[in-house]
Design brief:
With 207 residues, the protein is mostly helical. The chain is built from nine helices and no strands. It has one domain.
Length: 207
């Protein structure tokens, strides 16, 4: 079985990552603000489906593939770092926008909202790296089935991620309204988000 140390460790890592602005947060906030809470929650279902895809890959031992073929992992890692750097530039460049001040978006049907949430999460380098390279570090072969431990730790990650993202989606409209009445705070939030994304991009590329 999974040790308490492993549970607490992976929970702390996921809590830190889910609170760091990234593609999932930006998509959920933009949909919740422009189309309402229901659209945000439908999008969240797609994000959740993406988490389970990664969980299945982790349980199947995809990390072993990257260990055997390091060039593949390096390519995925650098591509993810580049994507995060692009998001950072969009936030920091002159005239950039905040996740809590998205441009108007045309309403989308539930199926498209779900699909976009799924695709956003599957292409999210933070999540890929979390399941591929971080989660295996908390698996202890001496404590039983590696696949079962991966499953339990992955479910822990998903529970935390969906809970926090759900709270963000539900409160995005209120947060956006609060920030919109305070342009300086909105600008500060944009710079903070961009700086965090840039830092994560650099760390992903060099770690």
């Amino acid at each position: 079985m999974v040790s308490l140390h492993a549970f607490l460790g992976i929970a702390a890592v996921e809590l830190g990552m889910v609170l760091t602005p990234g593609p999932n947060m930006m998509y959920l906030v933009s949909r919740s603000v422009t189309q309402g809470r229901r659209a945000g929650l439908v999008s969240l279902l797609g994000v959740a489906a993406g988490f389970f895809v990664y969980l299945l890959a982790a349980v199947a031992g995809i990390a072993t593939l990257f260990a055997l073929v390091p060039a593949v992992y390096t390519t995925v890692k650098l591509a993810g770092a580049g994507y995060l750097a692009y998001l950072a530039w969009k936030a920091l460049k002159p005239g950039g926008v905040s996740a809590f001040d998205p441009r108007p978006l045309p309403p989308d049907r539930p199926l498209k909202l779900f699909t976009m949430g799924l695709v956003t999460n599957l292409l999210n380098p933070k999540i890929a790296i979390l399941f591929i390279s971080v989660l295996p570090q908390f698996v202890e072969p001496g404590h039983g089935s590696v696949a079962l431990q991966s499953l339990l730790l992955g479910l822990t990650l998903i529970t935390i991620a969906i809970t926090v993202n759900g709270l963000i989606a539900m409160s995005a409209g209120s947060i956006a309204g609060f920030l919109k009445r305070r342009p300086r705070w909105l600008r500060t939030q944009r710079y903070f988000m961009g700086t965090m994304l840039a830092g994560i991009s650099l760390r992903v590329a060099t770690d």
